[in-house]
Design goal:
This protein has helices at 14-33, 135-139, 169-182; strands spanning 116-117, 120-121, 144-152, 158-166, 185-186, 188-190, 193-195, 197-205. The protein is an alpha+beta fold. The protein has a domain at 119-205: TonB (TolA/TonB C-terminal domain). The strands form three sheets. Strands 1-6-7 form a three-stranded antiparallel beta sheet, with no helix packed on it. A three-stranded antiparallel beta sheet has the order 4-3-8, with helices on one face. A two-stranded antiparallel sheet has the order 2-5. The chain is elongated and about 195 Å long.
Length: 209
């Protein structure tokens, strides 16, 4: 025994040691004299090992079908069936102006634009076409012209005189008075009928050398 154990006789009283030995003897005697039913053997149940199959993994999900690109549809050429056109005179179509009784309605004649002729100076009045020279402009030796627009009546005389342009207002005034008093025209006509019309006339004033 190691030094310091409970059976160390150097520190144990002889009386105490005897008691301990007597107690052990009693226990051993009781165990020896105990009936056999007191101690039941330990029965070990057999252990059965059953193989356990692992559950099969679920089948994989089906993959989506790959996208199939359809080829563009090409229009099939349409077959053309030849048509035979019989030669012959064209069929007669009814006249639009014909009525159901077979008589045609009268058609209005096409309207033509009227024929217009322009007024011209009467040769009998040609000697009085030129107006008198304004005295003030004659003394100043001023030459020029006057352009006027005249309204010619259906009987050929001048009804109105409007100035278009003039070198000097005196030239226009002399022309206006002359036209209203002496100018005469062969009037314009529309389909042969005399009618009013406008004409533009120019009068030039020149000094005699």
């Amino acid at each position: 025994m190691e030094h310091g154990g409970f059976l160390d006789t150097r520190k144990t009283n002889p009386a105490t040691l005897g008691l301990i030995l007597a107690a052990h003897g009693v226990v051993l005697t009781a165990l020896a004299l105990a009936p056999p039913d007191t101690f039941k053997p330990i029965t070990y149940l057999p252990t059965h090992i059953y193989p356990v199959d692992d559950p099969a993994p679920p089948p994989p999900a089906p993959l989506p079908p790959p996208h199939i690109r359809q080829a563009p549809q090409v229009a099939q050429p349409t077959s053309i069936t030849p048509v035979t056109i019989p030669l012959g005179p064209p069929p007669l179509t009814p006249d639009k102006g014909a009525s159901s009784t077979g008589t045609s309605d009268p058609v209005a004649p096409a309207r033509l634009d009227p024929v217009f002729t322009q007024a011209v100076m009467d040769p009998a009045a040609a000697g009085r076409f030129q107006p008198e020279y304004p005295p003030a402009l004659a003394r100043a030796e001023v030459e020029g012209s006057a352009t006027v627009r005249v309204l010619i009546a259906a009987d050929g005389h001048v009804k109105q005189v409007d100035m278009v342009s003039a070198t000097d207002p005196a030239f226009f005034e002399a022309t206006r008075k002359q036209a209203l008093r002496y100018w005469r025209f062969r009037p314009a006509t529309s389909d042969g009928t005399p009618t009013e019309s406008w004409r533009t006339m120019t009068v030039r004033f020149r000094l005699q050398a």
